[in-house]
Amino acid sequence: MKLAKRHNRRGFLRGRPIRRAGGIVAALITGAFTLGVAEAPTADAAVQDVINTFKNQATGLCMGAYPGNGTGSDYIGVGTGGCGDGVMAYQWNVHQWADGTRELKNTSYGLCLDDSNAYGLRMFPCNATPFQSWYVRRWNDGTIELKNQATGRCLDDSAAYHLRTFPCNATPYQSWY
């Protein structure tokens, strides 16, 4: 089980020098005087999308999309497999929304990872809804947890149950890197 980071009374991580924050503030002030007036970021300022793969800590398998049976978006499934095995599409475009959640869009199929109580985990045309928005929690070991904004469930992979969403429990089955 992963442990939460410990903070001191002032909210700083233990062991992190507080003077680092002072140095950053001093650099910003110096930069503002050097450049003139510093402009605040606008609401339109976008975070650059990145391409990622997601490998499960417990199973060592990567999340990917694959051709299934059906038509339209029902034709594309989502699961895990041997990373780079040529069977699945393992690359995801990660877009960060203004609220800090992420959209995971498969680069090969152009569909988004979607979770709902009605349909479960699936690939679906991207629609910028909470069903396709994922909170990212970073653990001390460098792995991440992906929690769906709409359902509150975490992305989970195991040999017994395969890729699914499940109530968050901070286990390696829900840790990704």
Automatic annotation (TrEMBL):
The keyword NAD does not apply. Keywords: Lectin. InterPro entries: Ricin_B-like_lectins, Ricin_B_lectin. One of its GO terms (molecular function) is carbohydrate binding. Residues 54-176 form the Ricin B lectin domain. It comes from the Bacteria. Pfam families: Ricin_B_lectin. This is Ricin-type beta-trefoil lectin domain protein. It comes from Streptomyces acidicola. The lineage of its organism: Bacteria, Bacillati, Actinomycetota, Actinomycetes, Kitasatosporales.
